[in-house]
Amino acid sequence: MPPSDRGWSIWLERSLTVPVAIGLAYSIIFAWFNGYLPAPYFYEPSGTFMDFFAPATFAHQGGAYDAFQTIYPPLSFVVLKLLSWGPCYVFNASEEARACDVYGVTSLFAFYLIDAVLIGMSFWKLDRQTAIPRAFALCAGLSMTYALERGNVLLFCFTCLILAYGPLLRSARLRWIFAGLAVNFKVYLIGTLFAQLLKRRWRWFEGALLATVVIYLITYALYGEGTPRELYANITAYAGGYKAASLLDLWYPSSLKPVEMLATGDVNFPILTALGSRTLETIAFVVHWFIISVTLSIVVAAAAAWWRPNVVPMHRLILLSMGIAVINSEVGGYTQMLLIFFVFMENWRGVGRPVAILLAYTLCIALDIPIEKVPPVVRDSYLSGGNVIAEYFVGVGAFLRPVLVHLMLFSLSLVTIRDVWADARANGWQSPLPWRRSPEPAL
Question: Do 112 and 339 contact (CB within 8 A), yes or no?
Answer without folding.
Answer: no
